[in-house]
Specification:
This protein has a domain at 46-131: Pdz3 Domain. The protein is 32% helix and 25% strand. The chain is built from five helices and six strands, in the order ααβββαββαβα. The longest helix is centred in the first third of the chain and has 11 residues, at 20-30.
Length: 132
């Protein structure tokens, strides 16, 4: 699945014309490049701080990136302001760009509290495209 999607991103697969904008959004979201003057500014990130051992959220693997799938009401992540569909870009001081999904989960589990998470919202259509 990941290989097929990456082939589409590289132009070696089929994708409908109307999916072109989503294709670029997915590529930029999950495989970011260096910013250029012609590229639109990235979606603003936000940072939350979790003080308890339990995070109060679940995550999912979308193209080897870790996305918040659910936020449990009245638990740590919810109270800190985490939003469903956000990409975890930093766990503490560690960038997640070079981590696999499972390495990111290990970082979430092993990091000392309070835990700072840097998150970036991802459009639902981009997530859906990445899940296919």
């Amino acid at each position: 699945m990941l290989r097929n999607f990456q082939e589409v991103l590289k132009g070696g697969g089929e994708m409908k014309e109307e999916e072109g904008d989503i294709k670029e959004d997915v590529k930029e979201c999950f495989f970011p490049s260096a910013p250029s003057s012609s590229s639109p500014p990235p979606t603003p990130s936000y940072t939350i701080s979790i003080t308890s051992e339990t995070l109060g959220l679940t995550v999912e693997n979308v193209l080897e990136r870790t996305i918040i799938r659910t936020v449990i009401p009245n638990q740590s992540a919810h109270l800190a302001g985490a939003k469903v569909g956000s990409l975890i870009t930093k766990v503490g001081r560690r960038e997640t760009r070079e981590l696999t999904h499972f390495e990111c989960i290990d970082e979430l589990r092993q990091s000392k509290r309070p835990l700072s998470l840097t998150l970036r919202p991802v459009k639902e259509e981009v997530l859906e495209s990445g899940r296919r």
